[in-house]
Amino acid sequence: MIVIQGENKQEFIKFALKTLKELGYQTEIEKGLCEEYIFLRWKLRRAIKHERDVLSEQNRRLTDLERIKIENGRISGRRVRNIERIDMSDPSVINLIQQQHELEKRINKTLDRIRDEQRINTEK
Question: Which pLDDT tens digit goes with each residue over 15-73?
Fold first, then answer.
């Protein structure tokens, strides 16, 4: 199963059924391609959530270092939340971006294959 610990199995099933219905497969080949598309989309969703977690952790570390600032003799609790301050050269961030890019390419290619298969089947 594609659902891992911490993910909602019912949410995945609902997403998969809705997507299968929207894609409107007619043959087993189309169904297989649709399932591949669903799995790739779910993985992209997971990658995006992981990216958000990694960037939030970087921001939290920056914030913890920078937020204790003395202004007019008192400690300021102001937090810095600026994406420009995130280290985009961090290997974990680079890896996430590359993974997302690859998933997006595979998703587009799979969707093209679904549409091609549907076009072939309607021409028969």
Answer: 999 999 999 999 999 999 999 999 999 999 999 888 888 877 877 776 655 555 545 45
- Residue 31 and residue 114: Cα distance in Å, rounded? 9
**CA angle (82 as vertex; 64, 58 as ends), nearest 5:** 45
First to last CA, the chain: 35
Once rounded to an integer, what is the mean pLDDT over residues 74-98? 69
Question: Distance between CA 26 and CA 23 in Å, rounded?
Answer: 9
Phi, psi of 5 (to 5 degrees): -55, 135
Structure tokens at 116: 């091609």
Rounded Cα distance between 51 and 45, Å, is 10
